[in-house]
Amino acid sequence: MENTDTVVAVLADHPAAETAVKKLTAAGFEMKNLSIVGKGYHTDEKVIGFYNAGDRIKFWGTRGAFWGGFWGLFLGGLFMAIPVVGHVVVLGYLAAIVVGGIENAVLVGGLSALGAALYSIGIPKDSVLQYETALKTDRFLVMAHGPAAEVARAKTILGTVNPSSLDVHKGVKTAPPAVAAAG
């Protein structure tokens, strides 16, 4: 068990999210300590779909290449529907937390499974609601999880991609999550 903090960057679009993840990994951050959350499609698309092809996921839609490319890099992920927000893709560390929350029915009053997962890693409820609102408006969340010094370093790196918000949340004592199974 270790104390894990989280830095959350809210980014305007998928190119900014992709740049953020690339900068973090180039700086030596392990994929197992990163998460990315965003809608799986653009709101003007009529058809969305995905299918599992071995250890890779294939997505249809304008963000298909973006999500499909990241699916293989992150250690697990899921595609879920959140009331009011819509369909969301969660990849990485947070995906395992969401799966654990669903499996254990650990839902915090008034929050979605994603919101409950964010809350369970030490993010205050008011911030959770702000992040869900950002997702609803087609923003992306890029997160780094780990010891305080690593999270501070990640915050500096994420600040270079011009996020609309950048917050550090003191975590709770957690064990590393199990790898989430591909949907």
Order of SSEs: EEHEEEHEEHHHEHEE
Give the strand line-up of the largest sheet.
6-7-3-8-2-9
Number of helices: 6
Main sheet characteristics: 6 strands, antiparallel
Structural class: alpha+beta
Question: End-to-end distance, in Å?
Answer: 28 Å
The tally of structural domains comes to 1
Question: Any key phrases for this structure?
Answer:
6-stranded antiparallel beta sheet; disordered C terminus; two-stranded antiparallel sheet; 6 helices; globular; 183 residues; alpha+beta
Secondary structure elements and their pairing?
Elements: E1 2-3, E2 5-11, H1 14-26, E3 34-39, E4 49-53, E5 56-60, H2 64-73, E6 77-82, E7 86-92, H3 93-103, H4 113-120, H5 125-136, E8 140-146, H6 148-159, E9 165-169, E10 173-174
Antiparallel strand pairs: 1-10, 2-8, 2-9, 3-7, 3-8, 4-5, 6-7
